[in-house]
Specification:
14 strands; seven-stranded mixed beta sheet; 28% strand; 2 domains; five-stranded mixed beta sheet; alpha+beta; D-Maltodextrin-Binding Protein, domain 2; Fructose-1,6-Bisphosphatase, Chain A, domain 1
Length: 265
Amino acid sequence: MDKVAEILVEASAEVVEPRFRALAAGEVMEKAPGEVVTVADREAEVIIARRLRELLPLPVVGEEAVAADPALALALHSEPAAWLVDPVDGTSNFIAGRPEYAVMVSLVRDGRTVAAWIWQPATATSYTAELGAGAWRDGHRLTRAPAAADPAKWRGSVKSRFLDPDRRRTVEANTIAFGEITAGRHAAGIEYPDIADGALDFILYWRTLPWDHAPGSLLVSEAGGVSARLDGSPYRPEAPGCEDGLLVAADPATWERTRDILLTR
């Protein structure tokens, strides 16, 4: 666990942090319509993937490698184990000079996330989680207290961009039941720790790319929260396009109540 955490910190210091608020012309590119990537993303992924393979020789499913060859993501199901890498989570924030970005890795075995690492360079904060062993922030164990009983006191985020229009109208209309709905922080590596730390009580996601959600889902679950599909099945990392819809909450009761409120027509 410590060695992977070191890899993230060192790769971030080498090629990510020096480019924060210092990206040169030509160092930001479009990798797909509406999706951007920077040289920091690509260089960090190469460094992290190489060092992870040296540590444990497994396939590496990296966000940028999959953008070039989508078939690489099939290793999540075809191989007994694989590394998942998000070299710069929150790339749009990083490009804009906002500090809400992270570097993330997770280890998947037999379709389940068994270990996770999140490094937040702007605050030098490290989050780790291991299946059955707990969640940690800078070496201190995380235990998420249950949310208040009254939803009117809850603070959450609803990512409605990718919902179909009918469901979006339903969900957005139902947010009135909650105390505060935020736009989110545009980086899963910031938002999941916000739930584990108690800053948020729930988040509804729709598109669930595995490198974005595997690390934080394990972190929240091991801290006492819930990360599950809308049918109640526990989150499992899927290749892009396989599964949509994910509700993350502070505790089981909050998860159930949030789902009921948001999806009621």
